[in-house]
Amino acid sequence: MTNTEINDLLTRFAQAWSSQDPAQVALYFCEDGEYRASKGSFSGLSAKGRKDISQLVKKMFAVDRNCMATTNRLLIDGQMAAWQWRYDFPDGSFELGSDFFEFRDGLIALKDAYRKVITDLDTCQKLKQGKMSS
């Protein structure tokens, strides 16, 4: 895939993700694609194949209902890419992370997601109150 094709694919993938339609999201993966989730009880889990990816994403969307996802800083190197993302929650809080992608046959072969974890309670409170910027 060219850089332009990867950029276009990820733009459409981000739109599918924002629609929170698990079946639509899964269509951007290879039949045997893999999604490694980044959060909560899903941390460390790996869904393989479109059916399992759709089921995992459905569970995640149930938890993250009404969130707004935005991406930036897309980096493409050959058949791999990475971007940063921000998840804004209805209560004003947000989470930051990165995704790493591998591509095959015009689709996503692997999406490996990572999320920043705030362990300092003071920093966490300031972020939730909007007193710190990303």
UniProtKB/TrEMBL annotation:
> Which InterPro entries does the record associate with it?
NTF2-like_dom_sf, SnoaL-like
What residues does the SnoaL-like domain cover?
Answer: 11-109
Do you know which Pfam families this protein is assigned to?
A: SnoaL_2 (PF12680)
Report the coiled-coil segments: none
- Protein origin, superkingdom: Bacteria
Q: What Gene3D superfamilies does this protein map onto?
A: 3.10.450.50
Can you name this protein? Nuclear transport factor 2 family protein
Q: What is the lineage of its organism?
A: Bacteria, Pseudomonadati, Pseudomonadota, Alphaproteobacteria, Sphingomonadales
